[in-house]
Structures
1.
Amino acid sequence: MSFSHQRHLLYNLLMCVIAAFTFIGFAQKEPYSVDGVVDSVWDKYKVQSTQIGGFGESSEGEPAISVDVYDKNDIPKVEKYLENNLSKDDLAQYEINVFSNKGIHY
């Protein structure tokens, strides 16, 4: 077997291994959900609370995603994170409300 033939086989084997790892990575990724995106905010920022639901005086108000962060400087970061990770349909459906009560517990 010539050196160029061995190199070609090694290249093909390497491509198969890369393809397999790529497929495994995509297969293990959790399916998209609004809950999943909002829950992931807890891993990235110091968050006091999150809520997905009605906004207003009754639970049947406008659909909203509310995030209470400890540090008011995180507000634009969390807004940007949600804008980048929620689908366009979800961004159109939900009002995004990120605020800071500075650690006040009610």
2.
Amino acid sequence: MGIDIKKLFKNRVSSFYKEMTKYYTIIFMSVFYSFLILGSIFVYYYVKFIQWIPPFLSSEWIASVITALILLQSTIRTFVREADTIFLLPMETHLSSYFLKTLIYNGILHLLKMTIVIAIMFPLIEYNIILTVQFLLLLVGLVMINVYLVWIEQWIDSLRGRFIHKLNLLISYALIFYFLFKGNWVIALSLLLLTYGFSFYIFPLGARRLNWEYLNKQEEKALTKNYRFINIYIDVGHLKRSFRPRLFLTRLIKNWIPPQPYNSFFYLYVLLFIRLNDYFYLYLRLTLIGTILVWVFPEYGWLTVPIILFMTRYQLLPLKREQNDFVILYPVSNMVKMKSYLKLLYILLIFQLVVVNVPVFFHSISGKTLISVFTELLFIGWFVLIFAKKRYDD
């Protein structure tokens, strides 16, 4: 049976959303409450951040850089599959309509995303200036041009070339958004055309072979990102993990943990944590964010630290499911496995608690600070010994 190119895009998108609907139907309420809590926290700190901005620093520049960085993170979903390299490669010359639809689809999604981002930036800019037809047209043009500029990245072979390309776009987008937020439409339009013209000069339109390997990797990254988010709430069995051996940390772990039978699963969980990028980088990011927030707003450390600890421990819970199926056959009791997992969880949270509270102790040590730290320790104890222990077999 031949492949109907006209229906291919519709079928791929429909298949993707059917699968996502199954997951989100299950986790909808959990996601809703999570966004409600995190949204409230974001609004609280966003207001504090706006109040903190010094008078000499232009709020439009801050909004421009943030908006440019977010636009720069845009990716292209093509819904290609690994098998397409074999089955669709001979039909590549007939797939222009398919990929055109994917670009339009991505452009619409990116436009919706940037509209929300700019709405969030309203407190930093004079939004009365930008609520015009000119701004909307320029925003649509910028988003669609960005889709094309992301699309051509598949033909940039070197990492250096991609870095220069991204850096050029970051500077260009920041300038364009700055003049858009200032209401200087002519300058913004000129910069937009100049950015497109420069990229068109370097990567002229013409017959190019698709970089199937690049498109497959980008699609896999996008899918993995979706599954990682879902995996926070429920187990996603086919989720692919990225890892690094981290030999230096591995050697340290081998010297730190005695080679005893009762330590076998503790050693396993520690290796899983330091080698799986999802958990390792997540832990580092949250620790760094918490430390920065406490340093900038030390008077709100009593609120920041528990939130960071809560986010960390909640997202470390799926680590217990990362072990290989064959490991279950090891002659080790379930109690030993659970204690090993809880021990790692406890050590990670205590270490994070110490690191995030360092700025608090640098500013001042008071009775309130000590009470806050003691409360956080109790919270960690409750989470590890009661909550995580109860959910270990789930």
3.
Amino acid sequence: MKYSASQRRISSFAVGRAGSKYGPPVAVIPTQNISCFSEHPGESMGLPDEKGVTKMKKFLSTTLAIIVSMLVLTGISTQAAEKSLTMATTTSTDNTGLLDYLMPHFTKETGIEIKWTATGTGKALKLGSKCDVDVLLVHAPGAEKKFIDQGFGKDRKEIMYNDFVIIGPKDDPAGVKGKSVARALDTIRDANAAFASRGDDSGTNKKEKILWKQTGKALPEKETWYIQTGQGMLATINVCEERKAYTMTDRGTYIKYQSQKGGDAPLVVLVEGDDILLNQYSVLTLNPGNCPNAKYDLAMAFSDWMAGKSAQTFIKNFRLLDKKLFIPNAK
């Protein structure tokens, strides 16, 4: 069969294709004026003439350059995606500004980008169990160990701590200042004094429930004086201020609140110092057996960096109102 030159032209060339690993077409090169073979209609197909060869070489050269460029860009994009982590963490590490201060140093030193979701520890652990993130930074040791025992987590590394405190109005209407934690909570209950709880299954909320149980009485729940905010720590402190209530908070978030008030906050620390008020923060990696797509190697790099000399020094030096918010204690 014979073909004219116009019938034998290549109409276009697409770089990439739908469904391929390179994604959808990213460039389409029209080639209406490039003849593959002879310019003379009616000739049988055969070797291209000299003019056709020149055009074909130019076409192939241009096409090859575009393909190489696109593959290089695809490779760069893939590498960037591979060197990134997603983390679920507590509201206290976010509210205090610690992560905004710390994570740029992590990225600079490791080349790993990190994005985080700040939520209660209970929700963070659920995100981890569902493989929705790559790594966790949380503060509920009992729940963390259970998470690992259930096969959701693999490694747990202690990084830093602060402590929990009970705060309330300066005039301390229930008279709890200086009491033990158990006695202070009993006093608040007996006085029907307003108490704001996060009520969100966060690490702080878990600890609060433990402390109420230590009084030997039932956990408050629907009592009119017991306010469950369902919000993060800083938001709960603000509710507490509005309602002239008491609450339990980690010291770091209280210092952040205090700094927002210019150092003279309406709520003050009234109960502190009991051993049970220790607040330990740890990094948890996910079990690859449960989450095969989680970036375990990068999560371990994050865990090791947080426990290393550089990060521990940054944590030690992080202050507001010239007060330390967290104490590094990695081993």
